[in-house]
Amino acid sequence: MDCNKIWEEIQDAVKTAVGSDVGYTVHIKRAEVVSFSDSVFTIAVPSPINRNMIEFRFKDKIENVLEAHTGQKIILKVILEEEKDEFLQSLRAAKSETAAAPSKYQKDESNLNPKYTFENFVIGSSNEYAASAAISTSENPGHIYNPLFLFGNSGLGKTHLMCAIGNKIKQENPDAKIIYIQTEAFTNEFVECIKNYKMDYFRKKYRTVDVLLVDDVQFLENREGFQEEFFHTFNELSGKNKQIVLTSDKKPSDLITLEERLRTRFSQGLQIDVAVPNYETRLAILRKKAEVNKYNIDYNILEYIADRIKSNVRELEGALLKLVSLAQLKHKDIDLALTQYTIESILPKDGIVKITPDKIMEKVCTVYNVTKDELLGKSRIRQLVVPRQVAMYLCAKLTDMNSITIGRAFHKDRTTVMHGIDKIENDRITDEDLKTNIDYIIKDLQSV
Fold first, then answer.
1. Which of 94, 262, 311, 345 is most exposed, with minimal Cβ within 10 Å?
2. What tens digit of pLDDT does each residue of 133-155 get?
């Protein structure tokens, strides 16, 4: 496929997915396509700020659009324009070497992020037990903790530990067949294989692995057909002492819409709660991030950020990136005044990002391609009623608002709100598209 044509065709979808005209125009629109090879789509951008913002804020969204357009798993690689010639030269050399000795190369389906290793995982009191168990699992896969079940809120390092297990096993045993996959991608592949009569391929792919790493298994809830398939895959791998690692935002017993037999299987191994990092761990994470990226930041600045931001690792890294980018943009040194300005612009006073009705409406509008005025309006056409009801449902689920306060936010009476919430609660059980949209919005809100 022609990479330039692909990039041109997906721009509208990328802009919608990003949900920010400024973010798209400043950081993405200026990107130049470099190559599309071996499922890696490479673009070049003018400055480190562009690269940093795309990698931290927009990479997943662009990859999702690319995957929907091409029908295959895509990894987005972002380089600087000044690195383009050197990158293309290296790419041509690698292809020549592969062509000369094809037997040395095999397609890697692991999907592991090579950046997620034990060496760059910062261990503190909140994750010490989980890290220790993960290391032990990587040293003796399939025989100590199987399955290993890591649970906790988004952004605390569960995916990092999971991929670190896979990377360590791969390092020790290059021939091991390892697959890391998110539950949404897993279920989507399952559906496609059913449609295309390729279930034999699906079962062979996942039931013959040495290590299966599945992220966000809470999204298996209310998907009975897939739960059945996953149950048999789990049993087959477990019976052969193949390592299984799972992550979720809840412990197995709290996944109440999951089949009992799956909850039992998930509970038979080791369950570990990955907690919010304490101050010392947050500070260590910031120091490590600054060291790896060669950021020249005074220790007292890092102490200030660690003291102010208390939610999760992702928010810590995001604040640090925003501070560095802002200093570069304004051509200023990173001092306490600039740091205070940066932190106050993204966090409330208690240092914890809260999910608000406005954030919920913004995400719903992006997913359903409607405006906030339409969402809050009086039109009763289905294209507006469904997103409006979804937004009300999420306000009830993710905030402490009751039906009266939700009604005030949406200019609706209490009865209308209650009807909308009940309808979405019932419909999401049978409507796969609706459930997928809701799960996506929740995950996106919780990872901001």
1. 345
2. 999 999 999 888 989 999 987 77
